[in-house]
């Protein structure tokens, strides 16, 4: 699609096909990474925004992009005011904007792989005050209209030598196990890629 306006129109058509009245597009991936691969740059593809943090919310007749003070100038240079409202965070939140703009009975979608539990609870509660519903989607509607979306990197991982890491993976895992015992926990889930790489002494090539 040649223009970002066309992409926004296509997304709205896809939302209607999925029986949704809105959708939230964060700049993250399924690991909640700060820096994401090309396949997960949904916000940039949709809006043209090239910053490292931001979120978009799309409704049938309104759309907003949320950025912090680092990107006040950049977002206005890269994202069309004809299509998008500029909303500053943390002064404002996506949940508050949705509450102010949705219609009663609206179904607002989100990709459950891309949001924290805290965000889901905040958005769900805000929408409930307007009689609207937050809906987890199985298929991300942005992906459905992103025809040339890059594939995830096929790069392989490599083992980081112990003399470079400064500590063996076994020693690190033993320290984590000791800490779990101290707090009375039986296990820990570690989804963050950088934490996993540190713990196992591995590195990606992407």
Automatic annotation (TrEMBL):
Pfam families: Creatinase_N, Creatinase_N_2. Residues 7-138 form the Creatinase N-terminal domain. Residues 149-168 are annotated as: Disordered. InterPro entries: Creatin/AminoP/Spt16_N, Creatinase_N, X-Pro_aminopeptidase_P. Coiled coil: none annotated. It comes from the Eukaryota. PANTHER family: XAA-PRO AMINOPEPTIDASE 1. This is Creatinase N-terminal domain-containing protein. It comes from Varroa destructor (Honeybee mite).
């Amino acid at each position: 699609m040649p223009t970002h306006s066309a992409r926004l129109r296509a997304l709205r058509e896809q939302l209607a096909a999925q029986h949704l009245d809105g959708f939230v597009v964060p700049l993250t991936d399924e690991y909640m990474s700060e820096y994401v691969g090309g396949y997960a740059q949904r916000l940039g593809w949709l809006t043209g925004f090239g910053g490292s943090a931001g979120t978009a919310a799309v409704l049938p007749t309104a759309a907003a992009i949320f950025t912090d003070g680092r990107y006040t100038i950049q977002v206005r240079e890269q994202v069309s005011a004809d299509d998008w409202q500029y909303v500053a965070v943390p002064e404002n939140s996506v949940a508050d904007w949705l509450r102010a703009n949705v219609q009663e009975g609206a179904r607002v979608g989100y990709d459950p792989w891309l949001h924290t539990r805290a965000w889901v609870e905040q958005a769900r509660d805000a929408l409930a005050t307007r009689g609207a519903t937050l809906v987890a989607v199985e298929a991300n509607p942005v992906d459905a209209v992103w025809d040339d979306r890059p594939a995830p990197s096929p790069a392989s991982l490599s083992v980081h030598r112990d003399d470079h890491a400064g500590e063996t993976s076994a020693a690190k895992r033993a320290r984590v196990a000791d800490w779990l015992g101290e707090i009375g926990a039986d296990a820990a889930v570690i989804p963050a890629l950088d934490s996993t790489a540190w713990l196992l002494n591995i590195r990606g090539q992407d």
